[in-house]
Structure formats: C-alpha cells, structure tokens
C-alpha cells in the first residue's frame, strides 16, 4: 500500500497539530478503510473493528501533540489500532466468549442466481478466504499481528518492526514461523 | 544441500526475495529434490496471494457521523469535568511554577538595582545642568547641596511665623471697623 498522495501523512499531522481540522478529516479519509481491514482481520467482528477504528481516530485527535516526527505516521496509527485490537481480544478472553459462534445463518453464503462468468472460482475464493481467516484467528496474537501486517496490509519489515516494537531479525523469523504455523492450522481445518 | 529444517527457516526469505545468491541456490536444489517441501512452498505462496486479494472491508456509512459524535461527546465530557473540578493547584502546569519563580526573581532584582540606597540613578552630566541654570535662572538648582537644618534654626523659623501672625492680627484690630464692633458686643455681654 504505497502512499501516492501529494501531501504526505506527516505533513497532514503537522497541519493538524497547528490547528487545521481539515487535515484531520483527510487523515480519516486516508486511513479509515486500511485500519478497518486490519482491525477486522484481527478480531473478525465488524462492529468491534469499527469501534476500534473510531477509537483509533479519537486517540489521534486527543493525542495529536504526542506524535513526533521520529517515526512514520502510518506506523504510529497502526500501533494504536493494534494495541486497541489486542485490548479487545484480552477482554474477550476474559469473558471467555468465542465470537466465531456469533455467525448466524444470515452470514452464510446465499444462493442467488449469479451472472458471473466464473462462479465456481469465486466460491472457491470465498471459501478459501473464510478458511484462511479462521486459521488466522487460531494463531497466537504475536503471529497474527505479524502475518496480517505483512501479508494482508503489505507493510515493510521495517514498518512492522516499529509497530510491534521488535528488532528486524525477530520480525523476519516471526513472520516465517507465522506462515508455517498458518499452514498447519489450514491443514487442521481442511481435515475437519 | 540444505535439510528440510533449514529449508523451512529460510522459506520466507526466499518468498520475500530477501535471500543471498548462495542460499537461493541451495533452497532451489532442495525444493527440486523434496516433494514435501515443494508442496509446502506452493501452499504458502498460494495462501499469501489469496490473502493479498482478500475482500476489502470498508467502514459503514455512519462511520464519520459516529466518529464526529464521539469526538464531540469526549470534548464536552472534558469541559464538564474541568468545570466541576474547579480550581486546583494540581491543574497548573509545572512550567507555570518555573515561570512565576523567574518573574519574581526579575522583579526583586530590578527593585534591588533601582531602589537600593547604595545605588545611584543615572544623572545628567553636571556641565549640562550648569548650562541650563545659566540660560534659565528660574530653574531650581537641584545640584546645589542643601545643608541640613538644626533644631535651633527650626525653632527660630517657627517663632518668626507666630510673630508675623500676631502682627497681622493687631494690625487687623486697629484698622478693621467690623473687628472693633465685634469686640464691643463681646464686652457688652460681659
């Protein structure tokens, strides 16, 4: 996800720190869906992930002066989202709820007649996506964060290193182990 | 030739093209000879490409409105909290104390320099003062030293003032007819 905007994120936050509210709106516009994707892959719940994203922006709004231009803005905002998502998961664990069981019949695929040229391929893709998503949810938290940031959000190793606050070597080995562990989980799910 | 364990440790480096030439060669040699490792490699690559093309999850239509409401609610809560708390020393930022201390030090320093008995205020050069007095003699000559008055001198001046008052009264009594009449009416009453 390359930044192709004329004004950089760092320039926007600088303007926002100087009192330009329109800069904050632009930040929201740029990041809302990226963060939504990240949060959703993390908690697998639409409402919760939207709450996480809103809380992320609220924190950015409140703590705008806490951002110093040492790190990239994207790193900072992803760190906030990741921490909020982890808090949600921790609360969930404490409540001992398994949110996957919340999926009702309305969430399952519906049998609408399709005009698509390759419906079979799409269904397979959908099935794969769901299976992979289930497998991701089974991963330990540190593996999940690493693999979502690398393979779904397509961030660089350096950015991931800053977000999860770990050395580059650790990030590389963690992503490698996360990919291998994901394959094990997928084999388990396919075997059921 | 590397082992299956070594193959697994560098599999991500190969996928992300973050591997040395020598390691890549060994990796590819192993993959050609081991069907299990080759299947694992293909599976990881397929999963990765599938994850790249995951359906994008977008925020709901009410997202911006809800966010705005959250920001306003939070701002109002903060204002209300600050009003209900009232004045508290804890809410004064630490730099304000430092600023106040510096300000007090500056004021005291200024006072000591300006009003200290030993200190001298900047004066007009005596040559210019003399010139001004010469040109305008009505101007008081502040530079001339004033000798301190003794108690005897003070007594003499006060006596002379009393004498002058008595003299003016007697002169008044002799010349003013109203004053003479007043004396007569007082004498009659007695």
Descriptive account of the structure:
The complex is a heterodimer of chains A (192) and B (190). Chain A contains eight helices and no strands. In chain A, helix 2 runs antiparallel to helix 3, helix 3 packs across helix 4 and helix 7 packs across helix 8. About 10% of the residues of chain A have low confidence. Chain A has 192 residues and is mainly alpha-helical. With 190 residues, chain B is mainly alpha-helical. Chain B contains nine helices and no strands. In chain B, helix 3 crosses helix 4. Chain B is elongated, with a radius of gyration of 52 Å. The mean pLDDT of chain B is 80. Chains A and B meet through helix 2, helix 3, helix 5, helix 6 and helix 8 of A and helix 2, helix 4 and helix 5 of B.
Q: Tell me how many strands of chain A there are.
A: 0
The profile of the biggest β sheet of chain B is: none
Contiguous low-pLDDT stretches of chain A (5 residues minimum) are: 108-126
Which H/E pattern describes the elements of chain A?
Answer: HHHHHHHH
Oligomer: heterodimer
pLDDT < 50 runs, ≥5 residues of chain B: none
Computed CA radius of gyration of chain A, to the nearest angstrom: 18 Å
In whole angstroms, how far apart are the ends of chain A? 35 Å
Class by SSE composition of chain A: mainly alpha
General shape of chain A: globular
